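User: quick one, fold this
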Amino acid sequence: MPSDESAPSYALEVTPESALQFTLTRTPASAAENSSTDAGVTRCTMTLRHPGKTGQHLAFKVKTTQPRRYLVRPNQGIVAPNSTETVSILLVEKDKQILLQSYDRLGQSALDHSKDKFLVQSCAAPDEFASLYDKEKRGDEQKSDGYKTSKEMAEKLTSLWDKTSTSGETPVFNKKLHVRHVVMEIKSGTPDPTAQVPTTRSDKTPVENMSPEQMFSEVSSLRRKYDELVAFSVNLTAERDILNNSLEQTKRDLNREIAAKKTLQEAAGGASADSRSIARGDTGGFSLSVVQVMVIAIACFLAGIKACNSDSVDFLQFVPILGPMLGMTGDVLTGDVLTDVVAVVEDPVPVMPDPPAMDEMGMEG
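Assistant:
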């Protein structure tokens, strides 16, 4: 991969650049019986190269979203300037079989949208730590099995990355890689005996004319297909139960929603009916319009004025609460009468003297 000039000096060049491809093959029966061979093992390699932009060693760490599905060796280490490190990634056999079963049911589309991802982190390593790592690596490379990180060095690398992540002082470069799974079908003519089973059956060879090897291959093939069918039926049953439970729960939720909505509608309908009744003036079959109320009020007002002018409301002074509230006391109500009495007292009519006595003849005495 060509050097990326825009990448920082502490970034490692990763090959492949964007995606890791795992080619899935069906394990031959002979390889399955022989545990010392790597036939049928699904692995992918990744190359990390120091671009030489800096004289410092670069530390790396490989992470994945599926740590139980993939085995990464080595998952951390140090790369010297202008040197490379090869990382081997192994797909666990159990997960490989699960992926193959998905492929058998749905085809390649079941594997095209894998959510598995890898993350390659790199940063500058301290010089003292890098020297110690190189010294241990040169000593182990002389062995026949090559260099393997010791337990103490692995713990030191883990401590280095923990300190880097916690402090945040050392810049870290992150490179994300997607995962692609591809199934490679084994064609006829290969040494895999299980791949020759369809060819044997296509000849329409009668069972009584089969050799013991053919019989064994046929029984093995049928047993494998039976196991796959049973597993598929169990999965379908589990999915059916899950769907039934989800459907029942959805029905219960829907019934509760309908009941709650109906209750709210009834409450809202009663309130609106009361408001409409008040707006129409419905009061037990007797209703008055605004104009009628105003006419009655004006008539009462005029009647009250007339009653006051004619002194027809004097009786209100005898009401215990209403009289004092309206200020209708006895003095106020009989003011005109009191005025006339006072006037009479202040201006008495002059008393005329008695006329003189007269005798029978009409003469004054």
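User: anything notable?
Assistant: The first strand starts at residue 13 and ends at 15.
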